[in-house]
Amino acid sequence: MVPTITVEPTKTTSKVEFPDSLGFGKIFTDRMFSQRFCPAKGWYDAKIGPYQQISLDPATTVFHNGQMIFDGTKAYRRKDGDINLFRPELNVERFNLSAQRMGMPEVNPQSHLNAIRELVRLEEQWVPNMEGTALYIRPTMISVEKTLEVRASKEYLHFIILTPVAPYFADGFSPVSVLVSDNYVRAVPGGTGQAKTPGNYAGSIAATEVALKKGYQQVLWLDGVERKYIDEVGAMNIAFVLNGNEIVTPSLTGAILHGVTRKSLLDLAPQLGYPITERRIGIDEIIEGLSSGTVTEIFGMGTGAVIAPVGQLSYKNQAILVRDGKPGPIATRLYKELTSLQRGLTEDTNNWTQIIKI
Ligand code: COI
């Protein structure tokens, strides 16, 4: 049974004014969704109410065992003023995949989707319409039992917050620079790499700080076993264009996030005439391909990042410019096609968008 959501009175912003630069996750809307879980009741107390602080005992298990997951999807303003969700069912699927891996209860997909739809509908004035912007939806689940025992918590809080955003990289569709980490690893098959859990991000921060200090924006992670194969980049999956046409992206090994943008491009790219393959990709193959010219573009893809061309790569102290640091034609085309589809500017022949009528 899909529980009904109680909507509590909330003091709302009378007229939302967006700053010139939205950034990513800097301002939040007036309302949030929340529900609680305990073994006796399952999920209960589903409500949409004021965005507010969460007060937790210092001994709450999330602070000690880190049982926590999150996800990300977006709502886009259409030209006709209505709103598009983009494949939100895939985010729920991934949220539940993360929940399983972290020993947490799954959410009912339908009630999670209803919560997203209802929250976005109520907060519709927060969906921006500037090029490249969207309302980012952040579902989260934390364990809230008070115990220091290392085992699955018996109680959980699931909440959804909303933030109007620009693409994750501040300069929008301009190339990012990436440092290949040959020191730290992010994940190993069988670990938690494919779950969207904060530990994966926490473990990446020291390496990201090193990259930032060296003038790079992101870390490219190699596989944690042989340190030879490419996994993904800090905030996105990665793809390479070979010989100006064929796209390759690392296969899902259990250590890589199941990106919704990645999955969508696996379908969209061939529809636009670019064959795409998932396979193991050696870092040596890419470094050699960049010097021989067979690797003609590199780009990242993610809900936050959208499609982000890579303009520079550094591996073992060797910095290599990709396309002289400029975006390539295939990343540009994919960005335009995907964002037009998400904003309802082109026909959605794949049935990927769900409209919220305003
Ligand atoms: C997303 O793309 O939704 C993410 O969660 C990545 C985040 C690091 C911005």
What does this structure look like?
- This protein is of the alpha+beta class and about 350 residues long.
- The chain folds into two domains: about 5-165, Aminotransferase class 4, branched-chain amino acid transferase, N-terminal domain (D-amino Acid Aminotransferase, Chain A, domain 1), CATH 3.30.470; about 175-340, Alpha-Beta Barrel (D-amino Acid Aminotransferase, Chain A, domain 2), CATH 3.20.10.10.
- Helices cover about 25% and strands about 30% of the residues.
- The chain is built from eight helices and 18 strands.
- It has helices at about 60-65, 90-100, 110-120, 200, 205-215, 260-270, 285-290, 330-340, and strands at about 5, 30-40, 40-50, 70, 75, 85, 135-145, 155-165, 175-180, 220, 230-235, 235-240, 245-250, 275-280, 295-300, 305-315, 320, 355.
- The strands form two sheets. Strands 1, 2, 3, 4, 5, 6, 7, 8 and 18 form a nine-stranded mixed beta sheet that branches.
- Strand 2 and strand 3 form a beta hairpin.
- The radius of gyration is 21 Å and the shape is globular.
- It starts with 5 loop residues before the first strand and ends with a strand.
- The mean pLDDT is about 95.
How widely separated are the two ends?
Answer: 27 Å
Low-confidence stretches: none
CATH topology-level name of the largest domain: D-amino Acid Aminotransferase, Chain A, domain 2
What's the architecture of the largest domain in CATH terms?
Answer: Alpha-Beta Barrel
Cofactors, ions, other ligands = 2-OXO-4-methylpentanoic acid
Number of strands: 18
Mean pLDDT: 96
Number of discrete helical segments: 8
**Biggest β-sheet description:** 9 strands, mixed
Order of helices and strands: EEEHEEEHHEEEHHEEEEHEHEEEHE
